[in-house]
Specification:
Pnp Oxidase, Chain A, single chain, seven-stranded antiparallel beta sheet
């Protein structure tokens, strides 16, 4: 049975996304593509995919308008769907995760379901309908799949854990030696952005996305500035479209060997042209992120991972 795409007359993209698509002369093409790919419900394939995941990446906004990228974990099945437009989560935020304080009924929320060993990923943006002692429910606003580009393949094992057990938490105002080392070794991170103005209509909300590259692809410029190459993608420009209208962003770095997590929030801007872009082979533009605050939590992720299998999509890229 075919899954109908975007059924609404208004665009599935907001003004920021449309502006960037137009900058590259791709607005008409991407509008047609988006209306095929983006839905206001979860097709059966996506419902099954989320149900088999041991983790989901979550994007939220706090009361001070800071963006945070978070992670929820659980045994496969902790994400379920009562119907194609309602998602149930039975999981509590990990100790020290900003989601502990941002999660509330009525907020916009973004999900990235990602299966690292198969390189599959699906995005979901929506609204929290209600929260309860064991989790929360989300009404789907938009859902769509992403290609496997730049995902480093890893197998996983889920350890037994209790999210309430305290872990060492370190507040971050600038990037110290430990944080800088963690970032420099990373081949993966996640970014949350948002545009929540009423003018965006059904295309507004919170988005969370994956970014991958060769280990060291995130450059530490100083103790509060990061520079990241951006490679060719699906040209939806969801992340950059949000940043076009709202510079706030949140980053999540994962230490896959130790289970440490680094949550950062701040502002970001896109460098669209200039000689600096050519310093990283394969980069089409750069993202510069300015750290304002964050948290580093040691040993909080109860997933253990194999060494990564290099993504073939990174063969054409270089290093700083």
């Amino acid at each position: 049975m075919a899954n109908p795409g975007w059924s609404r007359t208004e665009s599935p993209f907001h003004a920021g996304e449309l502006a960037i698509q137009a900058r590259f002369g791709a607005q008409e093409q991407i509008d047609k593509q988006g209306r095929r790919m983006i839905r206001d419900y979860l097709p059966d394939q996506h419902r099954q995919f989320f149900a088999q995941l041991p983790l989901v990446i979550v994007g939220t906004v706090d009361t001070a308008d800071n963006l945070w990228a978070s992670i929820l974990v659980g045994k496969p099945g902790f994400i379920s769907t009562t119907d194609s437009r309602t998602v149930q989560i039975v999981s509590k935020p990990l100790f020290g995760d900003p989601l502990t304080t941002t999660l509330a009924a009525g907020i916009n929320i973004g999900f990235l379901g990602i299966e690292l060993h198969s390189r599959r990923r699906n995005r979901l943006n929506g609204t929290v309908i209600q929260t309860h002692v064991d989790g929360f429910e989300v009404q789907v606003g938009q859902s769509f799949g992403n290609c496997p580009q730049y995902i480093q393949s890893r197998m996983f094992e889920l350890d037994e854990y209790d999210a309430a057990v305290p872990k060492p938490v370190y507040q971050v105002t600038t990037l110290g030696d430990v944080e800088q080392a963690m970032i420099r070794e990373a081949d993966t991170f996640f970014i949350a952005t948002a545009y929540q103005d009423e003018s965006a209509g059904v295309a507004g909300g919170v988005d969370v996305s994956h970014r991958g590259g060769k280990a060291g692809f995130v450059r530490v410029d100083d103790d509060c500035t990061l520079t990241i190459p951006d490679f060719s993608g699906n040209c939806h420009f969801n992340t950059f479209g949000n940043l076009e209208l709202n510079p706030r962003a949140g980053l999540l770095f994962v230490d896959f060997s130790q289970g440490n997590l680094l949550y950062l929030t701040g502002t970001a801007k896109v460098i669209w042209e200039g000689a600096e872009i050519s310093r990283y082979q394969g980069a089409e533009r750069l993202l510069r992120f300015y750290v304002e605050q964050g948290y580093r939590v040691e040993g909080s992720l109860p997933l253990r991972w194999s060494n990564p299998e290099f993504s073939p999509f990174l063969a054409h890229t270089g290093s700083w």
